[in-house]
Amino acid sequence: MYFNVESELLCLSFFILNVQETMKLIILENYAQASEWAAKYIRNRIIQFNPGPDKYFTLGLPTGSTPLGCYKKLIEYYKNGDLSFKYVKTFNMDEYVGLPRDHLESYHSFMWNNFFKHIDISPENTHILDGNAADLQAECDAFEGKIKAAGGIELFVGGIGPDGHIAFNEPGSSLVSRTRVKTLAMDTILANARFFDGDLSKVPTMALTVGVGTVMDAREVMILITGAHKAFALYKAIEEGVNHMWTVSAFQQHPSTVFVCDEDATLELKVKTVKYFKGLMLVHNKLVEPLYSMKETGAERRQSKKPYSD
Amino acid sequence: MPSNKSVSDAPIFQFTNCRILRSHQLQREDLWVREGKILNPEKLFFDEKGSADIHLDCKDSIIAPGFIDVQINGGFGVDFSLAADDVQSGISVVSQKILSHGVTSFCPTLVTSPPSVYHKVLPQISIRNGGPHGAGILGAHLEGPFISKEKKGAHPEHYLSTFESGAFQDLLATYRHLDCVRIVTLAPEMKRSSEVIQELTRRGICVSLGHSVANLSQAEEAVRHGATFITHLFNAMLPFHHRDPGIVGLLTSDQIPARRRVFYGMISDGIHTNPAALRIAHRAHPKGLVLVTDAIAGMGLAPGKHTLGQQVIEVDGLNTYIAGTKTLSGSVATMDSCVRHFLEATGCTVETALEAASLHPAQLLGIEHQKGTLNYDNDADFLLLDNSLQVRATYIAGERVWSQDTFTI
């Protein structure tokens, strides 16, 4: 019998990806391609999960400039009829404290303008921390409760700050922290000033944020990292040790993490690391090819090859 | 998707596939309407956890606030200055027909008339909301009789009047009923005009300067006493002179209260003003320009003879003269054609042209928190237009009150 070595290797890779704990570093050429890959991944994950009225797909979501391209692609998939958010529940990572909810820079406004208003998600299925709650810690505790009630997060999408933080878990945050109030680090305030007319005094100094531990509880984590200014943080996150000064490094201990980057974000990594993961792109691309669509019937979908089992 | 409203059970409409005029720009956004008002969808989403009940595809239309015409003397054979027994039915005819021109609110205008006409007509005019029956009536515009003889234009000289003996009491004796009066045009050089302007302003009536030979100082004095509008700039006033700009000089005057903005009406039908003059005014003071039609009974009808109060007017194409003369009197322009002509003549942006017929008249009358914009909680009076600003459909309080036969959404 003739064995096709390449297809054998691919099958083996599926097996590995499917069964073993992995950290995947996905390197795309530029921001647009990285955004698209991430969106395709989310799309495939939702569709293969086959969500329904008794089985919602719980998605953790970030804000900021990095995920904008990804949100645009997801909106495109919805508009084309390939993806629906009807049975998706979302949990955002964070929200400023004390900023009016209808302020242009609040994370509620961000999510409405950049995502929710363009898709078919039900308002009661979206969850964003309320930075104007009377009792902030109670609000945080309630949020943890809502995640638990929803059955935990299936896929938590996040970004990374220039100081290596995930959500607003600033350097020095406990790696087992839960949702709580945080005072923002100067690095973060400086990075956010551009959204407040460059005026540092207008930037909120406190925020409610999911903890590192909260995100670690998710069944899968996807971190989007693009741009040269994030390169050092990415290096610290995956090539150095687990360290509470670079909180994204905690995900080295998560069973299933995907880092989606562009070339610029890898500038501080060892050439060896980059070459290794670029070599794996052939395998990793199987996660987004074939690209599934909700237009296909259930039968069509079951027949096509799936790298995951339900 | 079913909505989940804790505030109201009324259906929520989402107008999609459109560009809306908001914050002085055409934005690719949806327009949300509930209970006759523009709805804030973000607040609906987060506060009420609500969503739209009915989606309407606007076929890539431009959505603009409904036009507001503050100077219209009649149309379709109706003359508001006629002492009819049933003024309301005439107003209703016009208010219904101008919906197709994109006008959702207007001020029926009466030209210089004998007191008997005012006594008979004014009590029959009532301020009322628009709807399928027609455009809303904001109140009457009384143009005259307290105007200048030299600049009477088409107004009958016999019925011109002054208030030099009794000031406001004279005015009250002439008009008698001021409840539904919204704007009064007068000539500020007349004796005791300051007192009259002050009293009218105090009563919330907008004072407009027009049909006048006032110089700039007299005009500025009038503005300081409360005048805020100029009736059809350039027409029926002294021409601009570089050493005494006259009323036209108000557009750039520094002798008026800092916070006060002077608005000025322009009939941009291509006849009342040379496009170059239109451009000069627009460039000098773009935020004050208010498009008006000054339409007369002959508007909407075939060319021929019609009345304008006590005068007979001859309509020939777009020209409207006092019969047998070359004196312009009113126009047969429609509001949407004025907007299109203004856009073309000035080369301004679509947003500017639309605001000159909606936002600015609303600001003039102090009602911009309610009409003239598509801001949240404003009345849902709006138009669907195509890219050349032809009106496709007219909505008042969120209800479609007119549309082109070939346009359905």
From TrEMBL, chain A:
Assigned keywords, A-Z: Carbohydrate metabolism, Cytoplasm, Hydrolase, Phosphoprotein
PANTHER family: GLUCOSAMINE-6-PHOSPHATE ISOMERASE, GLUCOSAMINE-6-PHOSPHATE ISOMERASE 1
Protein name per its UniProtKB record: Glucosamine-6-phosphate isomerase
Main location: cytoplasm
GO cellular component terms listed in the entry, alphabetical order: cytoplasm
Species classification: Eukaryota, Metazoa, Chordata, Craniata, Vertebrata
Residue span, Glucosamine/galactosamine-6-phosphate isomerase domain: 38-253
GO terms for biological process, alphabetical: carbohydrate metabolic process; generation of precursor metabolites and energy; glucosamine catabolic process; N-acetylglucosamine catabolic process; N-acetylneuraminate catabolic process; UDP-N-acetylglucosamine biosynthetic process
Taxonomic source organism: Terrapene triunguis
Subunit structure of this chain's protein: Homohexamer.
Name of the coding gene: GNPDA1
SUPFAM superfamilies from the UniProt entry: NagB/RpiA/CoA transferase-like
Keyword NAD: no
Keyword Phosphoprotein: yes
Superkingdom, natural source: Eukaryota
Enzyme class at the top of the EC tree: hydrolase
Pfam families named in the record: Glucosamine_iso
UniProtKB/TrEMBL annotation, chain B:
Any single biological process term in GO: N-acetylneuraminate catabolic process
Sequence positions that bind Zn(2+): E143, H211, H232
CDD domains per the UniProt record, alphabetical: NagA
Pathway(s) it belongs to: Amino-sugar metabolism; N-acetylneuraminate degradation
Key words of the record: Carbohydrate metabolism, Hydrolase, Metal-binding
Residues at the active site: D294 (proton donor/acceptor)
Cofactor binding, note field: Binds 1 divalent metal cation per subunit.
Enzyme Commission (EC) number: 3.5.1.25
Catalytic activity reported: N-acetyl-D-glucosamine 6-phosphate + H2O = D-glucosamine 6-phosphate + acetate
Residues binding substrate, per UniProt: A154, N235, A236, R243, H272, L328, S329, G330
UniProt entry tagged with the keyword Metal-binding: yes
Reported cofactor(s): a divalent metal cation
Family: Belongs to the metallo-dependent hydrolases superfamily. NagA family.
PANTHER family for this protein: N-ACETYLGLUCOSAMINE-6-PHOSPHATE DEACETYLASE
Protein's UniProt name: N-acetylglucosamine-6-phosphate deacetylase
Species assigned in the record: Terrapene triunguis
